[in-house]
Amino acid sequence: MVKVRRSTIIEAPVDEVWRILRDFNGHERWHPAVAESRIEEGRQADEIGCVRRFRLADGGILREQLLRLSDRERSFTYCILEAPIPLIDYVATVRLKPVTDGQRTFWDWQSSFRTPAGEEKALAGLVGEQIYQAGFDAIKSTFGQQSIAPAPARRTSAGSIAATGVADRPIECQGLVIERYGGPEVLHWERLSAPPPGPGELRIRHTAIGLNYIDVYARTGYYPLVDPPGVIGMEAAGVVVDIGPAVHGVLAGDRVAYACNPPGAYAEYRTMQADLVVPLPDDIDDETAAAVMLKGMSAEFLLHRVHRVGEGDVILVHAAAGGVGQLLCQWARALGATVIGTVGNLEKARIARAHGCAYPIVYSEEDFVERVNQITEGRGCDVVYDAVGRDSFMRSYDALALRGHLVSYGQASGPIEPIDIAAFAAKSVRVSRPNFGHYTGTSVEVRAMTDRLFDVLRRGILRVEISQRHALRDAAQAHRDLEARRTTGSTIFIP
Fold first, then answer.
1. What are phi and psi of 31, to 5 degrees?
2. 3-state DSSP call for residue 36?
């Protein structure tokens, strides 16, 4: 089964957007692919079971049936009865939600269908670009927003999209630029330009962008990954617009994702090295990819390379309800470990427990070292995964067993103070400070990690929770929430 999902932000109140989309017979007034539409048998356009008959701009006929409509949820579901291309058992849902102050709308459009063998990728690309993205751009134009046309394309006999060649002009777009190092206020929404791809490069239209704590470090200059003025962001998913010479293994129209240096993801379009991206399988949607690439690859090397977790191990995960924390808990449990986690409140404890943490500890209510000793009957943990830093580092050492391993992979609470390594001999512990870039330095390493990551996602071992969605231009507020520990799971931005 092929699954396609696209989403966007419309700069208009949700009720105004819903007024347009609710009309099941209204596509001819806004979608460029539809030349004429009518409801069969004289039924009402909001009557469940009604059938709309399209004459497409290219002369084809499309018949779709309304299966469900909810004004309360601002959503509807429909299926295809007849189409000029083989979208078998096609069912789609459109859903709208208000964003932040209610003056903007989050629009989610997703579908599932079967295709003839070998046509999965081509038809998924057609649905995502020529139907969903074209519809997004049309509605944005209705509300006076800038629409950026995709690269020229042509149709093949199967209805797939084939690139006509590399564009020779920059694509004007928008994104967030830091003018200097500092707080969230240094993020400014500005006009940018994505140049044509050169040798070994490709150009991407981002569909979803991930938020990670390393973005905070890049913004503040704690990690000088960007020289201001510049664009931060390490993780995104999108569609390849065009490719430069000497690019292999990826084509225009392919869905891809990445999590890597150099930063530059906080933009609508981006030109980058082709060997940094990973083609997305059909069963991994763009939002999931943007939410899980960096965090999931981090969990992979933390559990399989930095410290190989196995059956019978006892591990402690700090920030167990966070993005990486949730993945560590689920994956470690599947590997046979007993998972203890620290969280900030009872709601986060509930979330951590639902994601494989057998013993969530609310650190504001009880001493986590004492609780670890109770759970392990004084033995301590085999490994502690600590992304908190200054506030927890030495207490993490106290929670370790003899010959335990303290893995410090972040410092959300601030830099760790200098330590006397000789004192760690009392337990013969190991201390690691892994760097994401050192485990993802080559395309071969990245493909091996993402193959394992996609496999556990596919088998349901990992469940990705996207708990916060923001328009990309609202990233400053998302940064504030992340630094204040008000988030759970993953946060993504919609360009």
1. -90, 125
2. strand
Question: In terms of Cα–Cα distance, which of 375, 373, 374, 415 is closest to 398?
Answer: 373
Determine phi and psi for 263, rounding to 5 degrees: -60, 165
Structure tokens at 161: 């999209």
Instruction: Report in angstroms the alpha-carbon separations of 137 from 32, 140, 148, 328, 348.
Output: 10, 5, 7, 38, 38
Of the candidates 316, 423, 293, which has an alpha carbon nearest to the alpha carbon of residue 368? 316
Q: Which of 34, 51, 35 is nearest to 43 (CA)?
A: 51
CA atoms within 13 A on the CB side of 108: 20
Q: Are 74 and 14 in contact (CB under 8 A)?
A: yes
- Taking only Cα atoms into account, the Rg of the chain, rounded to an integer number of angstroms, comes to 24
Other CB atoms within a 10 A radius of the CB of residue 233 amount to: 26
Q: How far apart are CA 416 and CA 387, in angstroms?
A: 11
Q: What is the DSSP string of 213-255?
A: HHHHHHHHTSS--S-SSB----EEEEEEEEE-TT--S--TT-E
What domains does the chain contain, in order, with CATH numbers?
2-143 (3.30.530.20), 193-292+443-458+475-487 (3.90.180.10), 311-433 (3.40.50.720)
- Say which DSSP state 13 is in: -
Buried-state track 136-158, b at ≥16 Cβ within 10 A, e below 16:
bbbbbebeeeeebebbebeeeee
Output the CA angle 128-134-139, nearest 5 degrees.
125
Q: Is the dihedral of CA 333, 338, 340, 346 positive or negative?
A: positive
**Whole-prediction pTM value?**
0.73
For residue 193, the cross-strand partners are: 172
CA 241 vs CA 110, 171, 197, 444: distances in Å: 21, 10, 10, 24
Q: Amino acid letter at 182?
A: G
Write the CA distances from 1 to 65, 100, 434, integer angstroms: 20, 34, 38
Condensed to tens digits (0 to 9), the pLDDT of residues 356-383 reads 999 999 999 999 999 999 999 999 999 9
pLDDT of residue 147: 53
Q: What's the CA gap between 1 and 124, in Å, rounded?
A: 11
Residue 298 reports pLDDT greater than 60 = yes
Tokens of 350: 């509930």
Tokens of 435: 């760097």
Beta bridge partners of 316: 340, 384
Please state, in angstroms and rounded to a whole number, the distance separating the CA atoms of residues 162 and 126.
Answer: 10
Cα distances (Å, whole numbers) of residue 449 to 240, 296, 297, 444, 446 = 22, 9, 6, 9, 5
Average pLDDT over residues 434-451: 88
| pLDDT tens-place string over residues 116-152 | 998 888 899 889 988 999 999 999 988 887 555 444 3
Give the H/E segment covering residue 301: helix 286-301
